[in-house]
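USER: Fancy drafting a protein?

ASSISTANT:
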Amino acid sequence: MRTLLFLLALAPTLGADTLAEIRSRGEIQWGADQEGGGPYVFPREDDPAKVTGFEVDLAEAIAKRLGVKATFFQGDWKTMPQLLDKAKVDIVMNGYEWSPQRATAMECSIPYYIYGLQLLARKDDQTLKTWEDLGKRVGDRRRKVGVLTESAAEKYLREKYGDGLDLISYDGNTDAMREVETGKLDATLQDTPIASFYGPRFPGLRPIGAAVGRGYYVILARKGETALVAALNDAIIQSARDGTLKRIYQKYGIWDLELAQLYGYVDQAGGEEGEHAPDRPHGWRVVRLYGLIMVESAGMTVILSLLSFPIAVMVGLLIAVGRLYGPKWAKAPLAIYVEFLRGTPVMLQLFFVFFFLPEIGIKVPAFWTAIIGLAVNYSAYESEIYRAGLQAIPTGQMEASLSLGMSRALALRRIIVPQAFRIVIPPVMNDFIALFKDTSVCSVVTIIELTKRFSVLSQSTQATIELMGMTALLYLAMSYPLSIVSRKLELRMAREQQA
């Protein structure tokens, strides 16, 4: 236990206490990204709407010792620290390595897992047999190595090899392993639990040398929450002492001698056979296993589109009318609104609503962040469509309406806008179809829609072709009826004009 006690000494000792709040509501909300896959957090094969993994089991064991329920919160791995900072989650546990930078910005628990970095290459690649071979050029090119974005593996290779390698970053662990097997990459550097868990899934790969770059996975909490961290530390220690950790890690085949040494066990690593990644499903089995959850995720895509687009259309119409017929003082601000939103990516706008507004006391739930972000972004494009439609109406229409005693507002409502609406139907319908695809960016604010679900399941099952086909068919099922409606409206308008 000496190593464990030493690491305990690194834990913070002063700060605020939110543990009472967690216990009062009876749950601790922990954040992770199931897109990272096994053995951390990944969809259950029997129920893809739920998650499994060694961190899932660990979260439940810790929550039980705290006397509360563990609730999983899906978020993007890269933005999880921001979600923690904005109090979207209580803690983060998803293979985050201890580092001085993280220890400065957040509270860190004692380690719950020791990992190393394992280099993997193709079995038939005779040019890469040792770590020394990695830095050697292949012909006139540098070796291509896949790593997880912003991971310890990426940092290790950059520090050791500098510009001697072409590092290719991936959002999922198994993406890089698959790219090595298919020959697009020369190698990949993976955390040892990933290499152990997914090794049987990739028989064309082999380990190169011993693992390097030893590090520690820790639980992250907000700065100052030392009472909570102390409780987490105690739960980890007790789970180590009674064998809970060993049972969890053996279940997923990731128990080893270093863990035995860390947690004070005198027995050697090994024991009962651990679980590995489930066999890769094929063909119709993929449809049977994941068809329903894919349809449910498509439902989220439909809901986001149906709620956000009408708002975008209404706001866009008001902006267009304001720019053409409104007071002079309003025209410049409206033009700036349009150009700013068209000139910045929708992802940045979603980040603003979800992460910046809480800084000034405005907390918007993830679902409504997605609705607002999409509606505001598309309102700028819709305003330009309606502005073009309004300008296509002859100026004599407005003059004639005013000469008949109509007010400007009444003339717009009854004469001008209805005619413009008929003109802009085709481009508006095209934007509506495009919106179905753009909902995919909402995954950055923790929304799981169709594309995110595809990515998560593809990482954990490797049934990429089948899942890609299902995803494409679902998108076509959502967008094709709109294309038919758009064409019928265009034909109807053409007949009316000819008449």
The chain has a mean pLDDT of 86. The domain at 283-498 is CATH 1.10.3720.10 (MetI-like fold).
